[in-house]
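One thing: could you explain this record?
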Amino acid sequence: MVGGVVGWAVAGRHPGTQTAMSTAIETAISTAKGELTMHSEELTALEKDWMPTYDVVEGDTVRWTEPVWPANAWSRKRWGRKPARPIGSRTIVATVENENYGVRKQQHTFSLRVIESEGDDAPEPGKLILRKGRTLYRNGVERLLWTDEEARKVVAEEKHERGAEARYFRKMRIEHGL
């Protein structure tokens, strides 16, 4: 029976409310993605107004700057040597296509579709990249406002419920040795 409960937690949904909640979320996300497409001719993504955030949700358009490391920065060959230093930085603007809490350690991971990027070794537009939440939040992340911030709140509440469920089930697994 525990396996069924864990499987339910992995899905991150409440039985019975999934269709209404997922319909509202899908509508909000498609609206946000459509807004970016409609207004992309007016300004480039880097020129728009940005708001700092510590809560990125699916459908957000986000911008962050991250360091670029040398190719061998984390290899075992570096053991016993001075720590690697960043060789530059890059700024990336992307749309959050998916976000997920890791089942075992609650490592929040985002799937991001690059819209625009600049700097050292910048990914090309259209590329799908993965980033952990701690990587995005570490140096500050900014987002574009949605035209319907209430719809965004619905998406954020659902995300927070899934996070709370994941933390609860992890605690239960640890306490019961599963």
About this structure: Residues 44-175 form one domain. Strands lie at 51-53, 61-68, 88-101, 108-119, 128-132, 141-143.
